[in-house]
Design brief:
The complex is a heterodimer of chains A (about 200) and B (about 550). Chain A has 6 helices and 10 strands; from the N terminus they run ββββαβαβαβαβαββα. In chain A, β4 (about 30-35), α1 and β5 (about 50-55) form a beta-alpha-beta unit. Chain A has about 200 residues and is α/β, with parallel strands linked by helices. Chain A starts with a strand and ends with a helix. Chain A is globular, with a radius of gyration of 18 Å. Chain B is α+β, with helices and mostly antiparallel strands. Chain B has 4 domains: about 5-110, Sulfite Reductase Hemoprotein, domain 2 (Alpha-Beta Complex), CATH 3.90.480.20; about 135-290, Sulfite Reductase Hemoprotein, domain 1; about 305-395, Sulfite Reductase Hemoprotein, domain 2 (Alpha-Beta Complex), CATH 3.90.480.20; about 410-545, 2-Layer Sandwich (Sulfite Reductase Hemoprotein, domain 1). Chain B is built from 18 helices and 21 strands. In chain B, α7 packs across α8 (about 260-275). Chain B is globular. In chain B, about 55% of the residues are buried. The chains are: A alpha/beta (about 200), B alpha+beta (about 550).
């Protein structure tokens, strides 16, 4: 299936283990396993350079803390668009110490949710079966630019921590025209023209 | 009150634009009704029995006169000339057309208003004490904290697809005027031993088909940690709350099924992880919000001679003063509640003309600010005693001078089967009949303080569980019947009412209420309030009087 990663269309190079014997699989494979497989197979998975885990909505992220340090992908699922557990799972994964990989959302996603997903830590979405990949890629960008600022801190602002901008709590401009002393820059909108253009998807 | 700056203006306009696009996609058939539903709900747009209904947010029930005038304009232009103030301190318009709703949102944005999160499975409009900033018994102005929560919760990326709706109330006073124990989270300001101010955190209260009084999971939360703690509660709920059954999806069920201790442990563990982090409120951030709620400059005055004179000369005015005024922290001032419960009227309804009259009176006598109460009335919070008589005359002219606050005809009612597609029975005509029956001001005053709440279905939007007298509409083989409960209370001794006996038919409700009131008058001792009589004597005397001793 096609993916949109940070707004760009990319191929899905990952393979699911799906009950196969991992020893028979080429170590260069980007391998996606379930939490149960991850804990049962342990060391037998260590030869894979790229290992990911696919979580069900009810799976608890916190016991995976150690594993997350070596995982390159966490895939989450929205069984239905209004089942919002993936948003909290994404947040917990993104905030886990040492996780630098991809967080992928799959399942029933509405494009109106892309910005919420992105701000919760998701960077990649699996385009729904009937979806036009390019339009989803455009939607990712458009939704990210829809608001010039947000009222609350979220995962998308973590990258600012190391910067010299002061810490903020309630609200933050994402545009460089910010006037508030509380401002940070998460997404830089170059000018008003491109900003206005972002609505017209 | 809170005034928008560039940031807020931009945000609300961008949101209105987003909704305009979503409506266009729906009208073009790009979105199915199922997909459009959560999007419109997050902008307050419901589909009811006869039409769409737009619920506009009035954050913690505070409005400027300019905003009130705009609501009047919207009522005239896009509705049928009136609006309905709700138990969540919001206003609903019952007859907008889908194609007009983007224009309505634009119109609201011009006066710093919106309909964000007045519906849907998200954090709803935060409610607060309608007497904030004015009440004599206040620790701190709860609106400051309600505004902080409003900002934090607005389009929160993580908590917009919760298992179910989520309601938060804040109270900063000794007396609880926000039904704080009947909320998903109730926050109550407290002083600890070291004289610091913080919050008691009450979780899992609620009404609906499983009425539960909330449980305190933390006695004292230092206020700078408010948002991280709320986030810990919400994250725990979002991950663990039930999603398999609509009626078991509220946090109160999670709390009951997990157990208070295990639930609290989960919240505290998550809080431990994030406390002291990015959500810690710096003092200057709190100050920035506080500055918006600086109290108006009021000069203490000794009792006004003309005011006393007017009360002697005008018994109607005196009666109104007895029921509709509340003690102000500044001598020589009063908090005025304007009743939206005239005899035979629809609780909470106001015409466009009445909204404009209230706006004018607020400008003349109360610094241009209006509050909405969860009992569906309006408040002018800072009125000089010397102005009360002129204010009252203005209210008389607008047919807004009913003297019944806290009395039996001050009924809370949901829209019921007249509007709502969830309802089993009508609520409004029942309220109208009861208020007509109890229309003699002297009698109503003699009966004394009492709350009477009516819901048209088990979802309990009319707060019947929390009424001293509660009336619940049920459907029995296609006929409307009404179950009566006694002893509910939303105050500090929050209680769920007990069912009196078999439900009564539509035509028997007034008679049943009359019977209950007669019993109360027969058995009360001295000037005992109705609720105290029920608490002392139990429901049996009422049961026997209504149903006989069989």
């Amino acid at each position: 299936m096609a993916l949109v990663k940070n707004g760009l269309v990319v191929d899905d190079l990952w393979e699911s283990l799906d009950g196969r014997d991992p020893d028979t699989i080429d170590a260069k494979t980007a391998l996606l396993v379930s939490p149960a497989e991850l804990s049962a197979l342990g060391q037998r998975l260590s030869r894979f350079g790229q290992l990911g885990v696919a979580l069900a909505p009810a799976d608890d992220v916190r016991p995976l803390a150690e594993d997350l340090k070596r995982l390159a992908l966490v895939a989450l699922t929205l069984p239905k668009f209004n089942d919002g557990r993936a948003f909290s799972q994404a947040r917990l994964v993104r905030e886990a110490d040492g996780f630098k990989g991809e967080i992928r959302a799959t399942g029933h996603i509405l494009r109106d949710q892309l910005n919420f997903l992105r701000r919760s830590g998701v960077d990649t979405i699996e385009v729904p079966d009937d979806g036009d990949v390019d339009s989803w890629a455009r939607a990712w960008d458009a939704e990210a630019r829809r608001f010039r600022g947000y009222y609350q801190t979220a995962v998308d602002h973590h990258s600012n921590r190391a910067s010299s901008t002061p810490p903020t709590v309630l609200r933050r401009w994402t545009a460089p025209t910010a006037v508030s002393v509380l401002a940070t820059n998460a997404i830089v909108i170059q000018d008003a023209t491109s900003y206005a253009g972002a609505w017209a998807y | 009150m809170y005034a928008y700056d560039d940031f807020d203006h931009a945000f609300v306009r961008e949101r209105a634009n987003e909704f305009r696009e979503q409506v266009a996609r729906r009208l073009a058939g790009e979105l199915t009704e199922d997909e459009f539903k959560p999007l419109r709900l997050m902008n307050g747009l419901y589909l009811q029995l006869h039409a769409y209904m737009l619920r506009v947010a009035i954050p913690y029930g505070t409005l400027s006169s300019a905003q009130m005038r705009r609501l009047a304009v919207i009522a005239r232009r896009w509705d049928r000339g009136y609006g309905h103030f709700t138990t969540r301190q919001n206003i609903q318009f019952n007859w907008p057309k889908l194609v007009d709703t983007p224009d309505i949102l634009d119109s609201l944005a011009e006066v710093e208003m919106h309909a964000i999160q007045t519906s849907g499975n998200c954090i709803r409009n935060v409610t607060a004490d309608p007497f904030s900033g004015a009440a004599a018994d206040e620790i701190e102005d709860s609106r400051v904290w309600a505004e902080i929560i409003r900002q934090w919760s607005t389009l929160h990326p993580e908590f917009t697809f919760l298992p179910r709706k989520f309601k938060i109330a804040v109270t900063g006073a000794e007396s609880n005027r926000t039904a704080v124990k009947f909320h998903d989270i109730g926050l109550r300001m407290r002083r600890n031993g070291a004289d610091e101010i913080g919050f008691e955190v009450i979780v899992g209260g609620g009404q609906g088909r499983t009425p539960i009084v909330g449980t305190t999971i933390r006695e004292f939360l230092p206020k700078q940690h408010l948002l991280s703690y709320l986030e810990a509660v919400l994250r725990t709920y979002n991950l663990l709350g039930r999603r398999d059954n609509l009626y078991k999806a509220r946090i109160k069920i999670l709390l009951a099924e997990t157990g208070v201790e295990a639930f609290t442990d989960a919240v505290e563990a998550e809080w431990e992880r994030i406390r002291g982090g990015a959500l810690t409120l710096p003092e200057d951030e709190i100050r920035r919000i506080e500055a918006h709620f600086a109290p108006p400059l009021l000069v203490a005055a000794s009792p006004d001679q003309a005011f006393a004179e007017a009360k002697r000369a005008q018994p109607d005015f005196a009666a109104w003063c007895r029921s509709n005024l509340f003690a102000h922290r500044v001598p020589g001032h009063a908090i005025v509640t304007i009743s939206l419960k005239p005899s035979g009227g629809i609780p909470g309804d106001a015409t466009a003309e009445q909204m404009e009259a209230v706006a004018d009176l607020a400008d003349r006598f109360s610094h241009g600010e209006i509050r909405v109460t969860h009992e569906q009335n309006l408040v002018l919070a800072d009125v000089r005693e010397a102005d009360l008589f002129t204010l009252w005359q203005g209210l008389v002219a607008a047919e807004l001078a009913t003297a019944n606050i806290g009395l039996i005809s001050d009924i809370i009612a949901c829209p019921g089967l007249d509007y709502c597609n969830l309802a089993n029975a009508r609520a409004i005509p029942v309220a109208q009949r009861i208020s007509r029956h109890f229309s003699d001001p002297a009698l109503v005053e003699e009966i004394g303080p009492i709350t009477l709440n009516i819901s048209g279905c088990i979802n309990a939007c009319g707060h019947h569980h929390a009424g001293h007298i509660g009336i619940l509409g049920v459907d029995k083989h296609g006929e409307e019947f009404y179950q009566i409960t006694l002893g509910g209370a939303a105050d500090d001794d929050a209680t769920v009412g007990r069912i009196l006996g078999p439900s009564v038919p539509y035509d028997g409700v007034v008679e049943a209420v009359e019977n209950v009131i007669q019993t109360y008058r027969n058995i009360r001792t001295g000037d005992e309030r109705f609720i105290d009589t029920v608490r002392r004597a139990g429901i049996n005397p009422f049961k026997e009087a209504l149903y006989g001793t069989r």
